[in-house]
Q: What sequence folds into this?
């Protein structure tokens, strides 16, 4: 390399260095450039992320389309011709009259909740019989390609919302659509001011979807029974499933334990019953092949029992005839339930009034034909139920007064003869019990006294006592009606309560003390003492034991009635109190000296007194026993 070339490179290097020094950026220009470079980097990063997101979205979209195709295939496979009703949005609709408010859901076209507008719970909250999944009703549908579905899982479309006609009937119609032109409607009609409404199923061209020869549907109905009253134990005792055979009697499952029953005969109605309210499903045709189940819930549960029913109902897929029902959601009130049988023949009567436990046989007759009419009569003029019970008690005691008088006079006759009976017992030693008894019977025969003459009138009063025992706890009219210190005459009137569990006390007596029950016990002990003082039983075998038993019975009844309705204890208290008063009045009316003179005069008559059949039977038994003893010796 020559000198000129080297000089040229040095000059060029010098020029570059000088140019670089002259054009070097300052601090502001460097920061500006940095910001520019950072922006470019962010843009490039965002672009890369966007491209990645687009790619991912394309991938997800492809997968979603494939999944959607798979889901649609699964739904079609599972639901078949009903796949169009497999999904939907749950909506609610309401039918309401003066006494009943019903809420419906389009999922299953079933009743979602039922509220009785004229009643409240024991805690003053609205009285709702059921709500949501507490009650469920559905029909099993079988398709001709072996799909088994239930209407409670399918979505119906409301084709007719609430419609009211000239008579005040409100109607709503739900339709279950299919993939073809077949469908099924479920329609509900609620009349005005009525606890009973109607509903039914009607098909249209469902015979193209369901198997040939289908003429019935399997129906399921379940309900968790809410606790509505204060006394859970007592309410549970009156809660059960009752049912009526198509042309026969009304029967029920056991209340005190879990129970189930398979019924082959046709049924007219099935009732999920509480103490004061019932859900009754009535078939216009009948139920067949019915399974009923009742299970008691845990004591800490807000529910009393779980009820379940499975039955078969007639069904016409072609739609020529509908499957219709009626349903009663309301109180167990005798007048209301009995009104549904007015104007019907004996075979057509529903006999819903038998949901009220008025007692069997003669006890039920007394309640239906004497107690309830008398109660309704006083109720038309008097609004205080404590006063009504007082008046009913007075009327009943007046009606049975002749029997009470007869019982007292019989006891008085035996009482005035007590000195002579004591002489017999003194003359004849205890070892000769048969001779003692024969001598006493001879004395009774001579004076014309029959020991049974006082027992028969007392026995005739027992049906009335048992009838009232059934009437008061089952009377919904007394529900939440107060009197004196009792806030609710249909349940116990607690004046003292405790939380501690006491063995042998809490399970039977409860954790409270009812004042009317206590007053009933005290009055019963006083009445027992009064009766024992007027009955000559001291010298009779087992007389002392009988006295203690008579005093012990009121205490035993206290354990029983402490959990019963205050109205029942109040009635028995009044009845016993009036009996005590009557005893003193009759005692003042009967002259025992004059009565004794009459008995002596009858004994002195030449004509022998006619023996009563009871004395004759006793003498016959004595003769047979004496003969047996002689044969044994």
A:
């Amino acid at each position: 390399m020559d000198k000129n070339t080297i000089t040229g490179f040095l000059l060029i290097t010098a020029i570059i260095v000088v140019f670089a020094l002259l054009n070097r950026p300052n601090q502001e220009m460097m920061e500006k450039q940095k910001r520019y470079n950072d922006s470019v980097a962010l843009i490039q990063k965002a672009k890369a992320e966007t491209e990645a997101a687009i790619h991912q979205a394309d991938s997800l979209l492809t997968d979603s389309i494939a999944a959607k195709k798979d889901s649609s295939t699964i739904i079609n496979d599972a639901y078949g011709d009903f796949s169009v009703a497999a999904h939907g949005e749950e909506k609610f609709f309401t039918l309401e009259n003066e006494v009943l408010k019903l809420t419906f859901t389009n999922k299953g076209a079933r009743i979602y909740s039922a509220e009785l507008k004229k009643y409240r719970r024991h805690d003053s909250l609205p009285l709702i019989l059921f709500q949501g999944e507490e009650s469920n009703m559905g029909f099993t549908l079988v398709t001709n390609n072996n799909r088994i579905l239930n209407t409670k899982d399918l979505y119906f479309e409301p084709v007719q919302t609430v419609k009211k006609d000239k008579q005040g009937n409100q109607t709503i119609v739900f339709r279950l659509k299919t993939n073809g032109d077949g469908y099924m409607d479920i329609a509900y009609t609620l009349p005005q001011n009525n606890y009973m409404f109607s509903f039914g199923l009607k098909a249209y061209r469902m015979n193209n979807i369901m198997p040939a020869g289908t003429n019935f549907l399997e129906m399921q109905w379940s309900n968790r029974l809410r606790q509505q009253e204060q006394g859970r134990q007592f309410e549970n005792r009156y809660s059960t499933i009752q049912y009526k055979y198509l042309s026969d009697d009304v029967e029920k499952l056991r209340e005190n334990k879990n129970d189930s029953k398979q019924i082959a005969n046709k049924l007219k109605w099935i009732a999920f019953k509480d103490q004061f309210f019932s859900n009754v499903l009535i078939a216009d045709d009948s139920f067949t092949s019915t399974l009923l189940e009742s299970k008691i819930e845990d004591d800490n549960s807000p529910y009393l029992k779980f009820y379940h029913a499975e039955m078969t109902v007639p069904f016409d897929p072609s739609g020529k005839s509908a499957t219709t029902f009626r349903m009663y959601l309301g109180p167990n009130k005798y007048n209301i339930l009995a009104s549904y049988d007015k104007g019907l023949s004996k075979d057509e009567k529903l006999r819903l009034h038998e949901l009220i436990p008025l007692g069997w046989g003669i006890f039920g007759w007394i309640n239906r034909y004497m107690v309830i009419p008398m109660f309704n009569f006083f109720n038309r003029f008097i609004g205080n139920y404590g006063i009504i019970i007082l008046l009913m008690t007075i009327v009943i005691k007046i009606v049975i007064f002749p029997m009470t008088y007869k019982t007292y006079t019989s006891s008085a006759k035996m009482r005035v003869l007590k000195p002579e009976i004591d002489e017999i017992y003194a003359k004849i030693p205890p070892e000769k019990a048969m001779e003692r008894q024969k001598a006493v019977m001879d004395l009774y025969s001579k004076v014309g006294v029959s020991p049974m003459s006082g027992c028969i009138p007392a026995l005739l009063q027992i049906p009335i006592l048992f009838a009232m025992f059934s009437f008061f706890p089952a009377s919904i009219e007394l529900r939440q009606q107060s009197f004196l210190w009792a806030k609710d005459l249909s349940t116990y009137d607690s004046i003292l309560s405790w939380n501690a569990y006491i063995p042998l006390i809490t399970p039977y007596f409860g954790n409270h003390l009812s004042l009317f029950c206590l007053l009933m016990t005290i009055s019963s002990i006083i009445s027992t003492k009064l009766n024992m003082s007027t009955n000559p039983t001291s010298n009779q075998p087992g007389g002392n034991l009988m006295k203690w038993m008579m005093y012990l019975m009121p205490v035993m009844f206290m354990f029983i009635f402490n959990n019963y309705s205050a109205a029942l204890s109040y009635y028995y208290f009044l009845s016993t109190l009036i009996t005590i008063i009557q005893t003193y009045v009759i005692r003042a009316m009967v002259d025992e000296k004059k009565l004794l003179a009459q008995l002596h005069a009858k004994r002195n008559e030449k004509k022998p007194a006619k023996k009563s059949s009871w004395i004759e039977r006793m003498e016959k038994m004595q003769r047979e026993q004496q003969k047996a003893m002689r044969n044994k010796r």
Summary: The longest strand covers residues 277-296.
